[in-house]
Amino acid sequence: MKQETGFSKGLPILFVGILVGIWELLVRWTHTPLYILPSPSKVLIRFVSDLPTLVQHAKVTLLETILGLVLATALAFVIAIFMDVCPTLRKALYPILIATQTIPVIVLAPIFIIYLGFGLAPKVLTVVLMCFFPITIPFADALAEQDSRRENLLRSMGAPRWKLYTLVKIPGSLPAFFSGLKLAATYSISGAVVGEWLSSNSGLGYYMLRVKNGYMLDKVFASVLMVALLSFLMTMVVTLLAQRMIKPPRRKRRKLS
C-alpha cells in the first residue's frame, strides 16, 4: 500500500480553506447583509466573543451526548451479541432494526416529550436512537463473519461458549464495532441538538433557536461551528480509544538465509 504524503493528508484542509476563502470574497464583493449571510471572518469574531456563552451551552449538550452515546453503545453491544448467540433472535430483530431507520428521529422526539417531559430524558433518548443502529449492525455482522476454524479449534479443546466470544469473536469484531462507534459519535451531537430544538431552556440547540429568531446569523453560524468542533472532538476520542483497544496484527519476521 502506498503511504500518504504530507500534501495528500493536507488536501482536505486546503479544500476547506479554498471554500472558506471563496465564501469570504463573495460576501465582501456582493456586500451581503449580516442577517442574510455573514462572512467567515465575522463568524469567527463572533465565535471568539461569545465563547463563554457557547461553552456554557455546550456543557449541557455534551452531557446529553455522552449519556446517550454510552447507553447506545452498551445496548448495541449486548443486543448484537444476543443476536449472534441466538439466530432466531437475529432473524426477528434484524429486519425491525433496518425498518426503524425509515422513521426520522425528529418525528419521534415530540412523542418522547409527551411521555418523558421536558427534562434530560428525551434528549438522551434521541441520542440513543440516532447512535444505536450504526453501532449494532456492523458489530452484529462482524460477529457472524468470524473465522469458524478458530471457533472449532476452541470447541474441540472443550472451551465454553463465553470463551469463544472473549477470545475469538469479540476481539475479531472490534474494528467493525469501533467503525460503527465513530459514525455514531458524529451523529451524537446532532441528536442532542435536535432534542434541544423541541424542548429545552439550555444547550446549543436552544441557543441556536434563540439567536435565529433574532436574525443574528453570525451567532447561528458560531453555534454551528461549536457543534462541528464537538462532533470532531467526539470522533477523535473514539479514534484514540480504538487505537488503544485494537491491537495491530503482528508481522512475521523474515529469517535471514
Structure notes:
The chain has 257 residues and is an all-alpha fold. It has one domain: MetI-like fold (Orthogonal Bundle). Helix content is 80%, strand content 0%. The chain contains eleven helices and no strands. Helix 3 packs across helix 11 and helix 9 packs parallel to helix 10. The chain is globular and about 75 Å long. The mean pLDDT is 83.
Features of this protein?
257 residues; mainly alpha; MetI-like fold; 11 helices; 0% strand
Shape: globular
CA gyration radius, whole angstroms? 23 Å
End-to-end Cα distance: 26 Å
* CATH T-level fold name: MetI-like fold
Low-confidence stretches: none
Structural class category: mainly alpha
When the domains are counted, the total is 1
Task: Look at the structure and give the mean pLDDT.
Answer: 83
Query: CATH top level?
Result: Mainly Alpha
Q: How helical, in percent, are the residues? A: over 70%
Number of helices: 11
Order of helices and strands: HHHHHHHHHHH
Number of strands: 0
Named CATH architecture: Orthogonal Bundle
CATH superfamily: MetI-like
Largest sheet: none
DSSP strand content: under 5%
